[in-house]
Design brief:
Distance between the termini of chain B: 60 Å
CATH architecture of the domain at 177-271 in chain B: Beta Barrel
Number of helices of chain B: 5
Helix content of chain B: 25-40%
Radius of gyration of chain B: 22 Å
CATH class of the domain at 177-271 in chain B: Mainly Beta
Number of helices of chain A: 7
Strand content of chain A: under 5%
Number of strands of chain B: 12
Order of helices and strands of chain A: HHHHHHEEH
Strand order of the largest sheet of chain A: 1-2
Number of domains of chain A: 1
Largest interface: A-B, 63 and 70 residues
CATH topology of chain A: Arp2/3 complex 21 kDa subunit ARPC3
Distance between the termini of chain A: 14 Å
Structural class of chain A: mainly alpha
Largest sheet of chain A: 2 strands, antiparallel
CATH architecture of chain A: Orthogonal Bundle
Order of helices and strands of chain B: HHHHEEEEEEEEHEEEE
Helix content of chain A: 55-70%
Largest sheet of chain B: 6 strands, antiparallel, barrel
Structural class of chain B: alpha+beta
Strand content of chain B: 25-35%
CATH topology of the domain at 177-271 in chain B: Thrombin, subunit H
Oligomer: heterodimer
Chain lengths: 176, 288
C-alpha cells in the first residue's frame, strides 16, 4: 500500500469528521467516517500494512479528540485484526455485507469506548464535603450507539467510491 | 521470521495504546502526552474542517433550528424591541452603579479590550464537547485561558499548540466543572426590572455532554428554600476565574428533579444560552 494516498485519505477523512462534528454534536447522532476508512484499508491491504494503517488512523483520531490517547488506536487495531483474521473478501461491493461489517466493527469500537469511559471517566467522583458527594461523569452513550447504526447505513456510500479508487493505493494482492 | 517480528511490534503498539488509554489517565500522565502531541497537529486539518464546519452550522441552523412560533403583528414586535432595548440600557447602567459601590473592585470596563477573537474551524472528532480554533499567532495565549462569547462563558483553552490551532473545552463537556450562582430578573415594583441573587454559596456545575450541564450537590430542601425554578439564570461565581468574568452567564435552568442515586439531593439540569457547537467565533479572555 502506498503511503501518500493513505495519508491523503486519512487527512481528508479526519478533516471531514472534525468539520462536520458540529452536526454530530448538535443532533446527538455521531457517525464514524474514520471507521469506514479503517474497514476499507483492512479489507484491501496486506496484513502488516492493514494492521499498522488501522492503528495509525486511530492514533490520528485520538489526537483530534478529547479522548485519552490510545483509545481509538486500540479499537481500530482490533477492528483491523478482526477483518484481516476473517479472511473474507470484504472488497465485494455487496451493500449488505458492507453494512454488516460496519455494524460489527462499530460495535467493537463502541465496546472499547464504553469500557474506557467506565474505567477512565471524564471527571472523577468528588467529595465536596462530608455530606456532599457527586459521582463521576461519563459522556452520554446514546450518540455512540446511534452512531454505530448510522455508520453502518453510510457504509455502502463511503466504501463503494473508495473501492473504485483502490488502484491508487497499490494494494498488495498477496494479502496473507 | 519477518511475520513474527511484525507481530511483536504490533502487539507492543497495542499494549502501549492500552496503557495510554486505560492506565496512565488514572495517574493524569496521559493528559501531558496527548496534550502536547495533539496540540501540534490539530491545526493541520483546518483547511478541510473549517469550510465543513461552516457548512455544518449553516445546515443545522437551516434544517434543525427551532421554528419561530411567534406570529404576533410587526408593530407589536417593534414595540417590544424598543422596550427591551430601553431595559437593557437601564440594567447595564444599574450594573455599573452596583460595581462602583464596591470599593474593593475596579470597574468592569469593556471585556472586549482583554479578548482575542478566534474563529472556530471544527469540533471534536469523538464524542466529547470541544471546539477547534483556527491557528493563529499564539504568543499571547496559553492553556487554561477562559473563552467567552456574547451569550456567556464558553469554556477554557486546552491543548494549545505552537503555530497550530487551539482547542476549547466547552462547559458542556462531560466532567467540565465550575462554580456558579443563581440570578433571577424580577419586577422591582416601580416599573423597573432588577436582578436578584438566589443562594449565597456557589454551587458546582458539571458538564454532562450533549449540550447540557447539571448541579447535583444541592439538597432538595436547599432548592426549595432558595426557591429555584425553571428559567433562572446560572452565572459564574468561581474564584478560579478572573474577577471581571464573575457574573458571566453560564446557562439557564431547564429542569429540577431528584437524583436517582441520592433521593434527598436535587438534580438541576441547565443548558447554555445558545448551542455552543454552532459558534463561529469565540473570544479568548486574557487580562494580562
Amino acid at each position: 500500500m502506498k503511503l501518500l494516498p493513505y495519508l491523503i485519505l486519512a487527512y481528508i477523512t479526519l478533516g471531514i469528521q472534525s468539520g462536520l462534528g458540529v452536526l454530530w454534536n448538535s443532533s446527538g447522532v455521531m457517525p464514524n467516517l474514520v471507521l469506514l476508512v479503517v474497514i476499507f484499508i483492512a479489507s484491501h491491504a496486506s496484513r502488516d500494512a492493514a494492521l499498522l494503517g488501522c492503528f495509525c488512523l486511530g492514533l490520528m483520531q485520538d489526537l483530534l479528540s478529547q479522548q485519552p490517547l490510545g483509545v481509538y488506536a486500540l479499537a481500530y487495531g482490533f477492528v483491523g485484526l478482526i477483518i484481516v483474521g476473517a479472511g473474507h473478501n470484504f472488497a465485494r461491493t455487496n451493500p449488505l455485507i458492507q453494512m454488516g461489517t460496519a455494524l460489527v466493527c462499530g460495535i467493537v469500537v463502541l465496546f472499547i469506548l464504553l469500557i474506557n469511559q467506565r474505567f477512565v471517566p471524564a471527571a472523577p467522583a468528588l467529595q465536596l464535603s462530608p455530606d456532599s458527594f457527586v459521582p463521576a461523569i461519563r459522556p452520554p452513550v446514546w450518540p455512540l450507539i446511534s452512531g454505530v447504526f448510522l455508520t453502518s447505513l453510510l457504509a455502502p456510500l463511503v466504501l463503494w467510491p473508495l473501492h473504485k479508487m483502490k488502484r491508487y493505493f497499490a494494494f498488495d494482492r498477496r494479502r496473507w | 521470521m519477518p511475520f513474527i517480528r511484525f507481530n511483536q511490534i504490533f502487539w507492543l503498539l497495542m499494549a502501549l495504546a492500552f496503557t495510554s488509554a486505560f492506565i496512565l489517565p488514572r495517574f493524569s500522565a496521559t493528559e501531558n502526552i496527548g496534550t502536547k502531541a495533539s496540540a501540534q497537529v490539530r491545526g493541520l486539518f483546518a483547511p478541510i474542517s473549517f469550510p465543513l464546519h461552516r457548512l455544518g452550522t449553516w445546515t443545522y441552523s437551516a434544517l434543525f433550528a427551532d421554528a419561530v412560533a411567534d406570529h404576533r403583528p410587526d408593530d407589536q414586535l417593534r414595540n417590544e424591541n424598543d422596550y427591551l432595548r430601553t431595559e437593557l440600557v437601564r440594567l447595564t447602567r444599574q450594573l455599573e452603579e452596583l460595581l462602583a459601590l464596591n470599593s474593593d473592585r475596579e470597574l468592569l470596563g469593556d471585556l472586549r479590550a482583554y479578548c482575542t477573537p478566534m474563529a472556530v474551524v471544527g469540533s471534536d472528532s469523538g464524542n466529547r464537547q470541544t471546539l477547534v480554533l483556527r491557528p493563529a499567532l499564539t504568543g499571547r495565549l496559553r492553556d487554561g485561558l477562559p473563552v467567552i462569547c456574547p451569550s456567556g462563558l464558553v469554556g477554557r483553552l486546552d491543548r494549545l499548540g505552537a503555530g497550530s490551532g487551539a482547542q476549547v473545552r466547552l462547559i458542556t463537556d462531560p466532567g467540565f466543572r465550575l462554580e456558579a450562582g443563581f440570578r433571577r430578573f424580577v419586577d422591582g415594583g416601580d416599573g423597573k426590572t432588577k436582578v436578584v441573587a438566589l443562594a449565597s454559596t456557589p454551587q458546582l456545575v458539571e458538564g454532562l455532554g450533549d449540550g447540557r450541564m447539571v448541579i447535583r450537590n444541592m439538597t432538595d430542601r436547599q432548592v426549595k428554600e432558595v426557591g429555584l425554578q425553571k428559567g433562572d439564570w446560572v452565572v459564574l461565581n468561581d474564584r478560579d476565574y478572573e474577577r471581571d468574568l464573575q457574573g458571566l452567564k453560564v446557562g439557564v435552568i431547564t429542569a429540577i428533579g431528584l437524583r436517582s442515586d441520592a433521593p434527598y439531593y436535587a438534580r438541576i439540569e441547565l443548558k447554555p444560552m445558545q448551542n455552543l457547537n454552532l459558534l463561529r467565533e469565540v473570544m479568548v479572555f486574557d487580562q494580562q
